[in-house]
Amino acid sequence: MNNLDLSNITIILNAPRYPENIGAAARCCKNMGISTLRLVKPERIDMDKIQKMATHEALDVVESMTIHDDLKAAIDDLHYLAGTTARTGRRRRPSHSPRELATFVASLDKETRIGLLFGSEKWGLKNHDLSLCSSVVTIPTSNFSSINLAQSVMILCYEIFTAKLNSPIIKRPRLATFREKEGMFHHLYDTFEKVGLFEKQTPSYWMLNARRLFNGKGLTAKDVKMVRGFLRQVTWALKNARE
């Protein structure tokens, strides 16, 4: 028995279709010592089927899981979010292996709240969902890349669990929460608009690229404050230049 403290890990299932997969994912969480499970717009909630797949041992995970109507609400308090995808390509962000992710996550202290995001069994995660993530993970496979939702949850949880067994904790500055970064992105949008950037390209083009740039950097709370301070100074300079 290895009683590691993984209380800072949250599993998020985005638009899961089958209650059996929710229950199986809860069981995977329990196996690896993870207690926090969040659902975003589940297609169907059938507690009998969920509890049957979770088994008696994981009922506490099922009973404490939360359901959200919006992905942003489900990740609002997290500092680091890893999204999973089987689809890679030129227009998608570079991805890491589960082991590479686990090595990094295992080095973070327990005050850093980490989310592992999994998409729908049918569609996976869309580009917009992945743009909200700090990193992207792809599970390597042979000739058949489609992996059952609960199996994907188990693979990532297992890798983090085993990495935690022997990984030293590295004290780092506090990462910015999703809420703090969203405030920065709203501020960035307003500044882009004021300097006329949207006259050349659509807002979605600039904001998607801004999210890819900043979300991949592991921004600290101090970084976000510095960026927003710079944006305030830009706004002040524009206002004074027009007077």
Supply the CATH architecture of the largest domain.
3-Layer(aba) Sandwich
**Overall average pLDDT:** 90
Count the E strands.
6
What's the story with the biggest beta sheet?
6 strands, parallel
Which parts are unreliable, with pLDDT below 50 for 5 consecutive residues or more?
none
Could you say how many structural domains there are in total?
2
| SS-based class | alpha/beta
How many helices? The count is: 10
Assigned CATH class of the largest domain: Alpha Beta
At the fold tier of CATH, the topology name of the largest domain is: Alpha/beta knot
Instruction: Write the H/E string, N to C.
Output: EHEHHEHEHEHEHHHH
Q: Beta-strand percentage?
A: 5-15%
- Percent of residues in helical segments? 40-55%
CATH superfamily of the largest domain: SPOUT methyltransferase, trefoil knot domain
Distance between the termini: 69 Å
User: What spatial form do the alpha-carbon principal axes imply?
Assistant: globular
Major β-sheet strand ordering: 3-2-1-5-4-6
Descriptive overview:
By secondary structure, this protein is an alpha/beta fold. The protein folds into 2 domains: 9-166, SPOUT methyltransferase, trefoil knot domain (Alpha/beta knot), CATH 3.40.1280.10; 178-242, Orthogonal Bundle (Helicase, Ruva Protein, domain 3). 48% of the residues lie in helices and 11% in strands. The protein is built from 10 helices and 6 strands. It has helices at residues 19-31, 47-54, 59-64, 71-75, 98-106, 127-131, 149-166, 178-194, 203-215, 221-242, and strands at 9-14, 36-40, 66-68, 80-84, 114-118, 135-137. It has a 6-stranded parallel beta sheet. Helix 1 (19-31) packs parallel to helix 2 (47-54), helix 5 (98-106) packs across helix 7 and helix 8 packs across helix 9. The chain is globular. The mean pLDDT is 90.
